[in-house]
Amino acid sequence: MTVGTAPAPRRRGRHGFGGGGWVLVLPLIAFLAVFFLYPLVQMARESMSGGFSTYESIMTSPVYRKVFWNTLTIAGATTAICLVLAYPYAYVMNRVSPRVRLALMAFVLLPFWASLLVRSFAWIALLQDSGLVNQALQGLGLTDEPLSLIRTTPGVLIGMVHIMLPYMVLPLYTAMARVDDRLLLAASSLGATPLRRFVRVFLPLTLPGLGAGCLLVFTISLGFYITPALLGAPSQAMLGEVIAEQVEQFGLSTASALGIVLLTGTLLVLVVVALFAKRIGRSSR
Amino acid sequence: MTKMTSRGGRTIAMIAATILPLALISACGADESDGKTTLTVASYGGPYQDAQAKAFFEPYMKANPDVKIVQDSPSDNAKLRAMVDAGKPQWDVVLLANDFGNESQGKWLEPIDYDVVDKDALLDGYAGKYRAGADVEGTVLAYREDKLPQAPSSWADFFDTKKFPGKRAVNKFAAGGILEAALLADGVPQAELYPLDVDRALKKIDTIKDRIVWWDTAAQSQQLLESGEVTMGLVWVGRAIDAGKSSPVSVDWNTWLSQDAYWMVPKGTPNAEEAMKLIAYMVTKDPQVEFTQLIDYGTVNREAAEVESVRANPNRPSNHLDTQVPMDDEWWAENLEGVMETFNAWVLT
Question: Where are the transmembrane segments (chain A) (predicted)?
Fold first, then answer.
């Protein structure tokens, strides 16, 4: 009640709330506790309903090993392709007139506003054997047989990269916008070649954005379900698809264990990246 | 401080004033408030359930003013089991497919009362201990007339990608019919199909595995046929016929597997008696004929199957019972889990 009127004795930052500030976070915490934490605990219990045996069979099964491998490589490849495409794009966005920038931004965000399901089906219409791309290729006489663009790893990657690009472009754009141009000028005036200027000045300054983008794309990609199910084949299924299949056909036990494994894996990635970022942060200081 | 408590007290009073009537409404809304029996019927939903409502539920309510039928959808094996296990089934009559209602699943179901339901009216095989047939569907071999040199006429043709080039659409489900199709194509006589030799079947499917496009949803199977992405498919008959309306897709009626729907009554429902009466009505001749006029599925009623307007449709499954390969639902009920594990692992590699 006293916010803003009486000065708090010890201000924490600029927006001290006194003692009652925690009340403001209570609704969200309560929401998460009821709708996230509690189900998560239930899920962990469900996965342990047969002791560790469920985990044991998951870890020893060559099928699941392949699925884990598929998940990691497809998420990794999606991240790499997004980075390669988004970095120059974000750079150009920072160098053009505001009007062009708006157009470029719209290009990235437009697909963001369309439903993921609709986009995946649109890719099917485009990429399938009898789809537009293959019709065009065959019409131009470039191929006789339709190319297998769908139900293959490239098909999954096309769909996933399309969906994940905004998550890479936006953090990179923000990081690049914050780079002080005078630093680049200074580097040039001290005789740095453009390449050296990029590697020693620009790239390190955009690393936080690059890290955030990669982390977002990679962790979200790990849990992908609909896109690989629609654009891929079962032989390169990702974990999300296998979890869904387990829930539908066998019940919750193995599915919960797979979910816990995915969650643990994702957290591990986060921890490793956080440690790595800390080290970089320290060494650059 | 006093202001706070009074405000808090008012809030509680307001919440109570909101919740109490709601609780009262839900308490008395349940059943026989006006002497009526409310039967809750769960089916698959969509145009299919609409047809059932028109052919079965509405005329039944008209003839029995003391019964009110409330519809729910979709029905689901797991949900039914959970309801019965919890001791409070909300459904009185449920429609499910071949994989439920077998004798090994009797602990979740009331036995069909054949003193009420006329057993002799039903086609052979459609009067089970715990289920009565609802309609005859089928998993059929559908093909693109325009993309194949000739029409396929045997299970072996489905696996012959030289004579019949192109991809195949197949349900990504162990009990979806592909194992049976593979064994029949491999020369296993129909009479010796069960118990299924799963390894032999998978070996046979391996010969065309790279030509198979797996479908998860029926809509997908229809799209694959319509777009010409596949030249043949093992699909549900309704989808094959729908695809045939917009593109040159035909059904080969020499090669089809049973796929049916059955009415069942969850164990422990207080309305079991009324539920049996409804089922008895739904399998009689007139409603069955009416149903077939609304949808292309086959009838389970012996007399209805002979009616001219029912016979007239060349794609009605019940007109091809002589070539039907009946799936052994009892065997599947007992072996589904194990076969599914083998099959799913095989699909993923």
Answer: 21-41, 67-90, 102-126, 156-177, 198-226, 257-277
